[in-house]
From TrEMBL:
It comes from Pedobacter lusitanus. It comes from the Bacteria. One of its GO terms (molecular function) is oxidoreductase activity, acting on the CH-OH group of donors, NAD or NADP as acceptor. This is Contig57, whole genome shotgun sequence. The keyword Ribosomal protein does not apply. Belongs to the short-chain dehydrogenases/reductases (SDR) family. Keywords: Oxidoreductase.
Length: 251
C-alpha cells in the first residue's frame, strides 16, 4: 500500500487531497495544528476507506517539534511515496510600509521555512527508498506580484525557486518534484488572510466562480498518477474567470 504525507490537512486543499488519496487507497500521514479537526478527518477517512491514517499535531514552523514527531513515526510509516507540501497561509494585505512584521514572520516561517523543514526530513527518507514524489503547493502569487501582496508573493516566489532547486538536487535519486500553482480557490485562505473577517473574505470571490479545493486535489492526482517516466514540473491553474493575479471577470 502506498503512503502520502500531507501538511495542512485540516482544511481546504490539504483536506481535499486527504479525501482523494484515501479514495485511491493510500494510507495517510496528516499534519496540522488543530488537533480535534485533524483527528475527526482521520477517523472519518479511516472508517470510510478502510485505510490507516496517522495524525501528527505539529506546527511546521517549529523545527524541533516537527522533527521529533516525524522521526518518531514507526519505520514502516517513513516509506512516503507522495509528500504534499501544502501547509501555508497569507496574513494581511497591506502596503510595505504598513505591513505587520509579525505577519511577515508567520508567512515566511510557514510557507518557506516550514516547507523546508518537512522536505529535508521526508526527502531523506525518499532517498533511502530510491523513490518518491514531492508536490509543492505554490500559487499564482509565485508567478506574479500584485499590489499589497509583497511578502506573501515573496514566499510563493521562494516556493517556485525551491521547487526547481529540489528537482535538480533530487534528480539523481529518482525523486519527482512538481509545483501546483493555483489562482483563486475558495477555502479558509481569505478568512485567515483577513484574520477571521468572514465578510471581507467572501467579497474576494463575489461575482465569479472560484476554484474548489477539489479542483486542485484533482490536478495533484493527475501529476501523481502519470507513468513512472513522466514528470509534471509545474502547473498553473486558474478559475475560468481569472486571467492573472489581478484581472478577474466579475458578473
Ligand atoms: P486553508 O486555510 O483552507 O488551509 C491551510 C492549511 O494549512 C490548514 O490545514 C492549516 O491547518 C495549515 N497550516 C497553516 N499554518 C500551519 C502551520 N504553521 N503548521 C501546520 N499547518 C499549518 O487554505 P488553502 O487550502 O487555500 O491553502 C493551502 C495552500 O494553498 C497554502 O500553501 C496556500 O498558500 C496555497 N494557495 C491557496 C490559494 C487559495 O486561493 N486558496 C491559491 C494559491 C495557493 P491548521 O490551522 O490546523 O494548522
Ligand atoms: C493565493 C492566491 O491571488 O490570493 O495564493 O495570492 S492569491
Amino acid at each position: 500500500m502506498k503512503t502520502a504525507l500531507i501538511t495542512g490537512a485540516t482544511s481546504g486543499i490539504g483536506k481535499s487531497c486527504a479525501h482523494l488519496f484515501a479514495q485511491q487507497g493510500y494510507q495517510l500521514v496528516l499534519v496540522a495544528r488543530r488537533e480535534d479537526k485533524l483527528n475527526e478527518i482521520a477517523r472519518h477517512l479511516a472508517d470510510k476507506y478502510a485505510i490507516e491514517v496517522k495524525t501528527l499535531i505539529a506546527d511546521v514552523r517549529n523545527n524541533a517539534v516537527l522533527t521529533a514527531v516525524l522521526e518518531g513515526l514507526p519505520q514502516q510509516w517513513k516509506q512516503i511515496d507522495v509528500l504534499i507540501n501544502n501547509a501555508g497561509l497569507s496574513q494581511g494585505l497591506d502596503p510595505i510600509d504598513k505591513g505587520d512584521t509579525t505577519d511577515w514572520d508567520t508567512m515566511i516561517d510557514t510557507n518557506v521555512k516550514g516547507l523546508l523543514y518537512v522536505t529535508k526530513i521526508v526527502s531523506g527518507w525518499m532517498i533511502s527508498a530510491k523513490k518518491g514524489h514531492i508536490i509543492n503547493i505554490g500559487s499564482i502569487a509565485g508567478k506574479e506580484v500584485y499590489p499589497n501582496g509583497n511578502v506573501y508573493c515573496a514566499t510563493k516566489h521562494a516556493v517556485d525557486a525551491l521547487n526547481k532547486g529540489m528537482r535538480m538536487d533530487l534528480l539523481p535519486h529518482g525523486i519527482k518534484v512538481t509545483a501546483i500553482n493555483p489562482g483563486m480557490v475558495e477555502t479558509e485562505f481569505s478568512v485567515v488572510r483577513f484574520k477571521g473577517d468572514e465578510d471581507k473574505a467572501k467579497k474576494v470571490y463575489e461575482g465569479l466562480e472560484p476554484l474548489l479545493a477539489q479542483d486542485i486535489a484533482d490536478a495533484i492526482w493527475f501529476a501523481v498518477s502519470r507513468p513512472a517516466h513522466v514528470n509534471i514540473n509545474d502547473m498553473l491553474i486558474m478559475p475560468a474567470a481569472q486571467a492573472s493575479a489581478t484581472l478577474v471577470n466579475r458578473k
